[in-house]
Amino acid sequence: MSDDFVDYVMELFGPFGTATARRMFGGHGVYLDGLMFAIVSRDMLYLKADEMNRIEFEQAGCEIFGYARKGKRATLNFFRAPEDAMESPELMLPWARSAYAAALRANAKRQVAGQAQAARKIAQQKTAGNKSAKTKTARAAKQLERSKRTK
Fold first, then answer.
1. Which domains does the chain show, CATH number per domain?
2. Of 1, 13, 16, 66, whose CB is crowded by the most CB atoms within 10 A?
């Protein structure tokens, strides 16, 4: 993969904000404010998609990002950037905004899922604690009953 292409992609995202590219899996992840919203692979740019903006990419005839994984084809929710968007930062801007919005939504879902998982774990610990306390109380009551009988 050409570093010149990655540099060009960074120029395309210039009006959108200070995006950074990090090497990963033979390509680059493109990040803004810590969120990956694009992938550069084999001198092609792929933008983040979800159920909200996927139709935009499909209507523009964009291909989904795919790769070989254990002998099978795997895909990610990233679509190749439209050809015309690759021509200028101004044409790329709405696509970059859409991809970043999808990254924000995915991050929000992960945070909610993480909070729900933490809440379930706390509830399980409380339930286990309550059972333990009930068991200790029952044991203490039995011991008290035994001690009353022996007196």
1. 3-113 (3.30.1460.30)
2. 13
List of residues 6+ apart from 20 with CB closer than 8 A: 30, 31, 32
The two most distant CA atoms of the chain are separated, in Å, by 95
Q: What is the pLDDT of residues 25-38, one digit of tens each?
A: 889 999 999 999 99
- pTM for the full predicted model: 0.73
**DSSP secondary structure of 132-149:** HHHHHHHHHHHHHHHHHH
* DSSP label of 60: T
How do residues 78-126 score in pLDDT, each as one tens digit? 999 999 999 999 999 999 999 999 999 999 988 887 776 766 777 777 7
Measure the CA–CA gap between 91 and 136, rounded to whole angstroms: 69
